Amino acid sequence: DVCVIVCTTISGRISMSQKLRLGVIGAGLKAAEYAQSWAKMPEIEFVALADTTETSRKRLIDVCTATGAPEPKSFEDYRDMLANAGLDGVVVATPPRTHAEIALSALATGLAVLCEKPMALNVAECDRMIAAARANRVRLGVAYYRHFYPVIMRTKELIGVGKIGRPVIAQINAFEFFNPEPAHPRSWLLR
């Protein structure tokens, strides 16, 4: 489970004997996936969530409590969560147009950030996020599961050891089976 790998390495300042206190900004489908994964991980405590929509916050709290996990604290404004929840790191799972602003705010408070893809809307925003992580000496990651595909890992390995020379351009086509039930939130893609 990629979520497990990424989340357990989000903060270098936590010892293995301490729980990693995490929050999610954005209470949609991705946040629910994190909540379900974290509920299975004793080293992670899902402390807080932030979303501007009350129904989304309530739905995510229901997901958490259904797993038997404690109810995370709910915030309407992510800035309040960053200031008051006592977090070690956050996942930014909001619409892409908000990623840079939210990540920069979290990084400025000294929190590790895992940002859903795409990292930001342009290279300049990405550069600012990277600079903020370095300046605050915290980790910044992008949640993109295909990094862990065997073909991608093998390609990276071959490039790293010089087996295929210096790449100038690359294209990788990855296809996955997708046949959602009519009630699935992304079933509209096949209509």
Task: Summarize the structure in words.
The protein has 191 residues and is α/β, with parallel strands linked by helices. The protein is built from seven helices and six strands; from the N terminus they run αβαβαβαβαβαβα. The protein has helices spanning 2-7, 29-38, 54-66, 78-84, 99-108, 123-136, 150-160, and strands at 20-25, 44-50, 73-75, 89-92, 112-116, 140-143. A six-stranded parallel sheet has the order 3-2-1-4-5-6, sandwiched between helices. The longest helix is centred in the C-terminal third of the chain and has 14 residues, at 123-136. The protein is globular, with a radius of gyration of 18 Å. It starts with a helix and ends in a 31-residue tail after the last helix.
How many H/I helical runs?
A: 7
Q: Please state how the strands of the largest beta sheet are arranged side by side.
A: 3-2-1-4-5-6
Class by SSE composition? alpha/beta
Overall pLDDT: 88
Uncertain ranges: 1-9
State the shape.
globular
The profile of the biggest β sheet is: 6 strands, parallel
Order of helices and strands: HEHEHEHEHEHEH
Helix % is 25-40%
Tell me what portion of residues adopts beta-strand conformation: 15-25%
End-to-end Cα distance: 30 Å
How are the elements arranged and paired?
Elements: H1 2-7, E1 20-25, H2 29-38, E2 44-50, H3 54-66, E3 73-75, H4 78-84, E4 89-92, H5 99-108, E5 112-116, H6 123-136, E6 140-143, H7 150-160
Question: What's the gist of this structure?
Answer:
It contains seven helices and six strands.
